């Protein structure tokens, strides 16, 4: 992580999953368990969850619904905090983040219909539960996740986002370009007065009229006429 913090997550994922699977097996044989994870695919989630179902556990999925920009900014914040205390941390690349971000939506869609997933709860980051789905295949969990990811910012939320963005630009000067990309991702969901001013397309004072052609030659409208 010290030498390549941007690609550390991808580099350690295979080893991490191997050790994690062994830990899951150990716990599964003894007591209840709560697992926090960011699966990179539906298959990765099922490989983790279904052995618990096979051993008699009721498997429930709790999903954190967060806008893409908020999720990426939080990754930058964790990285900055690690550096601030003299440690090392992972600053996941956009592609790495987006892989897991898409995989979560795919996982919820599969879990809603899976007979061995007992329930799905979709929550906001502040802990507010948006919906609880219990194996009826209605798609409510997928809908709630998608809706929250696209929910417009309140003015208070937008101000907090921008303040954190400015602070991280100071703390992580090497990554200002990416931080600005993250802010650009958030802007369309912010209140109108907090979005960049739009430059309208200039309107010419006159517009060209179509050319009228005649078989016998050009007449008085053979060149472009203009109307006020």
UniProtKB/TrEMBL annotation:
Residues 3-131 form the Zeta toxin domain. The keyword Mitochondrion does not apply. One of its GO terms (molecular function) is kinase activity. InterPro entries: P-loop_NTPase, Zeta_toxin_domain. Keywords: ATP-binding, Nucleotide-binding. It catalyses: UDP-N-acetyl-alpha-D-glucosamine + ATP = UDP-N-acetyl-alpha-D-glucosamine 3'-phosphate + ADP + H(+). Its EC number is 2.7.1.176. Belongs to the zeta toxin family. This is UDP-N-acetylglucosamine kinase. It comes from Streptomyces sp. R35.
């Amino acid at each position: 992580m010290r030498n390549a913090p941007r690609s550390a997550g991808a580099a350690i994922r295979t080893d991490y999953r191997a050790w994690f699977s062994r830990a899951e097996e150990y716990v599964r044989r003894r007591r209840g368990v709560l697992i926090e994870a960011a699966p990179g695919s539906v298959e990765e989630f099922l490989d983790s969850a279904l052995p618990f179902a096979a051993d008699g556990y009721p498997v429930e999925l709790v999903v954190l619904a967060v806008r893409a920009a908020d999720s990426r900014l939080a990754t930058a914040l964790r990285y900055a905090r690690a550096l601030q205390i003299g440690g090392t941390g992972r600053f996941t690349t956009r592609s790495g983040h987006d892989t897991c971000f898409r995989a979560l939506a795919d996982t919820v869609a599969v879990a809603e219909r899976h007979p061995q997933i007992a329930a799905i709860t979709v929550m906001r980051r502040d802990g507010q539960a948006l919906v609880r789905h219990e194996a009826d295949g209605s798609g409510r969990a997928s809908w709630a996740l998608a809706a929250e990811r696209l929910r417009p910012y309140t003015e208070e939320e937008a101000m907090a986002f921008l303040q954190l963005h400015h602070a991280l630009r100071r703390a992580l000067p090497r990554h200002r370009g990416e931080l600005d990309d993250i802010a650009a991702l958030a802007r369309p969901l912010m209140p109108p007065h907090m979005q960049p001013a739009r430059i309208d397309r200039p309107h010419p004072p006159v517009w060209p009229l179509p050319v009228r052609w005649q078989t016998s030659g050009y007449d008085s409208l053979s060149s472009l006429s203009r109307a006020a």
